């Protein structure tokens, strides 16, 4: 496996400048993924300093064409998950390109792909072949429904939202099941993949061996549904749609005020007591119907009437200020733009420029703040094949360089 601290060619400037010296500096990732789950995973790793080489078919990542919205003719869907990467176009049906793909995998620490199960066998890039040929390689496969009975099912997030049960518990009970407003299981699977890769890299540093990681959207979805799926596994409970209500907590959701809705979250008895006092019915904290979470759940409608009557006396902004001052969790419902602006007001600096000069693209920052080795944003999401020649030059240099110690 390569030692990227001694890279030559395409990435030497980046390494020497220290711009990419994050916690994963020295790790090379061959990224054969597209759309969302895989690219999100590899972008997070790239932000942390890994050298990610994005391999695309001649037509490019599907998400490049998912417009609107767009920025300068490029889909913002693609821009969202592909910064800090180097793009090379390879047609695996062409012998020369396939040879380049094999070279790249041979130089990588991690190979991430989301081909259909069995789809890489014809190219000799399946997990069994790559891990036998490169014993230290961490081959990461992302599928929709695994490699067994679901191997032929296409892995679209919306299908998983339906099949996992998420849609059955999302939306109003009087209306049809509802999808989430984002491809959340693609994102969760990407996070799980990144976590697994980090664990495998650590284990390799102890054992010296790589391994095959397998992830699928449905398994990630069932894990990500946490209390809902756990309730079924533990006691056979099948939850139903409750709109914006929580199945186990009350009050916990949006409530109308004099002008618009305000989210209120009373997660324990102390918070409810402060809420009741602030809204003018402090006696309710001692009332047996409301004095415990179980009791409040049993008497939701009666308590809802008290809440709505009190909240109707003032607008949402008034109550937000009052309840926040009492340490009661609450929040207005904002749109996406307002949400980003709110984070800015809190000093979270959610928008960061990726790249430099005319290629700079505003992006949403990496979610982890490191005290010594911060995430970097040195490279804008690449144009299709923008780094092809540099990647080939780097591979040629690696093939002629003295052998590196692979025991690291």
UniProtKB/TrEMBL annotation:
Supply the SUPFAM superfamilies for this chain. CoA-transferase family III (CaiB/BaiF)
Q: Where is the composition biased (Polar residues)?
A: 1-19
Where is the segment annotated Disordered? Answer: 1-21
Q: Which keywords has UniProt assigned to this entry? A: Transferase
Q: Name one GO molecular function term.
A: CoA-transferase activity
Leader sequence residues: none
Q: Entry's InterPro entries? A: CoA-transferase_III_domain (IPR050483), CoA-Trfase_fam_III (IPR003673), CoA-Trfase_III_dom3_sf (IPR044855), CoA-Trfase_III_dom_1_sf (IPR023606)
Q: Does the keyword Transferase apply?
A: yes
Q: This protein is called what?
A: CoA transferase
Instruction: Give the originating organism.
Output: Nesterenkonia cremea
């Amino acid at each position: 496996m390569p030692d990227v601290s001694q890279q030559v060619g395409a990435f030497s400037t980046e390494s020497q400048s220290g711009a990419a010296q994050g916690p994963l500096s020295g790790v090379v990732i061959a990224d054969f993924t597209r759309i969302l789950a895989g690219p999100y995973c590899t972008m997070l790793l790239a932000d942390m300093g890994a050298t990610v080489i994005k391999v695309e078919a001649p037509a490019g990542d599907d998400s490049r064409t998912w417009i609107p919205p767009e920025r300068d003719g490029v889909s913002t869907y693609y821009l969202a998950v592909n910064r800090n990467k180097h793009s090379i176009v390879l047609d695996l049906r062409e012998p020369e390109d396939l040879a380049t793909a094999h070279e790249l995998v041979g130089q990588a620490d991690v190979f991430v792909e989301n081909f259909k199960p069995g789809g890489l066998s014809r190219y000799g890039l399946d997990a069994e072949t790559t891990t036998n040929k490169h014993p230290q390689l961490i081959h990461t496969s992302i599928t929709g429904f695994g490699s067994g009975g679901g191997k032929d099912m296409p892995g679209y997030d919306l299908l998983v939202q339906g099949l996992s049960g998420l849609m059955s518990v999302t939306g109003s009970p009087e209306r049809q099941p509802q999808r989430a407003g984002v491809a959340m299981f693609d994102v969760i699977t990407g996070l799980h993949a990144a976590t697994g890769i980090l664990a495998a890299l650590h284990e390799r540093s102890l054992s010296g061996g790589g391994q095959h990681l397998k992830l699928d959207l449905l398994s990630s979805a069932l894990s990500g549904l946490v209390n809902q799926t756990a309730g079924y596994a533990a006691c056979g409970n099948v939850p139903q749609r409750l709109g914006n209500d929580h199945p186990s907590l009350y009050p916990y959701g949006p409530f109308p005020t004099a002008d618009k809705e305000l989210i209120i979250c009373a997660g324990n008895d102390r918070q409810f007591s402060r809420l009741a006092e602030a809204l003018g019915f402090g006696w309710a904290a001692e009332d047996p119907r409301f004095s415990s979470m179980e009791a409040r759940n049993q008497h939701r409608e009666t308590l809802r009437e008290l809440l709505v009557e009190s909240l109707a006396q003032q607008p949402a902004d008034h109550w937000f200020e009052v309840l926040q001052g009492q340490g009661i969790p609450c929040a207005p419902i904002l749109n996406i733009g307002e949400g980003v602006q709110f984070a800015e007001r809190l000093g979270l600096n959610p928008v960061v420029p990726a790249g430099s000069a005319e290629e700079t693209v505003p992006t949403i920052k990496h979610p982890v703040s490191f005290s010594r080795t911060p995430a970097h944003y040195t490279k804008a999401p690449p144009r299709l094949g923008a780094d092809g020649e540099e990647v080939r030059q780097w591979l040629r240099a690696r093939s002629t360089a003295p052998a590196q110690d692979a025991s690291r």
